[in-house]
Known about the structure:
This protein is of the alpha/beta class. The chain has a single domain (23-299), classed as TIM Barrel (Alpha-Beta Barrel). Helices cover 39% and strands 16% of the residues. The protein has helices at residues 3-19, 54-67, 89-99, 130-137, 141-149, 170-179, 204-220, 231-236, 273-282, 286-299; strands spanning 26-30, 71-75, 83-84, 87-88, 103-108, 121-124, 156-162, 183-190, 246-250, 253-256. Strand 3 and strand 4 form a beta hairpin.
Amino acid sequence: xxxxSFIYFAKFGxxxxxxxxxxxxxxxxxxxxxxxxSCKHCxxxxxxxxxxxxxxxxxxxxxxxEMGVRILFFCGGETFMWNDKGKALRDLVIEAKKMGFLIVNxxxxxxxxxxxxxxxxxxxxxxxxxxKHNEIRGDTYDLIMRNINNATSDxxxxxxxxxxxxxxxxxxxxxxxxxxxxxxxxxxxFHTPYPxxxxxxxxxxxxxxxxxxxxKMMRYGAPVFNLKSAFPYLVSNNFPTPCYQCVVIENGxxxxxxxxxxxxxxxxxxxxxxxxxxxxxxxxxxxxMAEMLKTYMKYI
Length: 300
């Protein structure tokens, strides 16, 4: 991370904590809900199949920037399927950087060619070892591994949603992240039980067991892009929600924190690690502050 970016984020954090501001710093643009996969835990793919037009995405980028957002995510659906007016995902990342966003990331299922060195991180969904990943996402594991090996940059971060199916494979994913040359880190979430996926939700005991494994892998040297200080809050689901410093925009609609806000009762069952980390940070948790500084400086 550049020193100038660090200073900007530090100032933002202090102002937010001391003045109790609710200005967003992290924004996500949903490019499309179109996806080439139908994963067992996903409830937001291929609902409309619409690829949002370039002019709209460009307008949403400007809108988020004017709101104060400086960390931008492009999400889907599958982001690499987005294209309009001769523009592709890479063009959006480059434009976002020129616009002034300090960190620009994208989320992908990894089944498309990974040629995006301009992104700070490519968050790639890997949901376990070959057997469990394919059980959740279809026969895609080998293709993803090939794409990672052929990637043009080492900016890949695994993005694993831990659920009833793959909870025993956390160690496997950590070891793959540690050993693959183009993979910088691995980031975990617990499954958030969107409608019709409730059976995949982990119990509190299972969450604790998963956190114990993640901590063990951290000590072993696995590049985990999560904050262990937040784990107790995630296990018991007692971190503050929603995260007012995060927003999602989809087809012109802005949601505070995420799209799950529209589903009654789901916010209280949130499994997103970054939500816990950010809400605890902006509530002045000193341990989170120190660990986030160390982690972000290492992996971004």
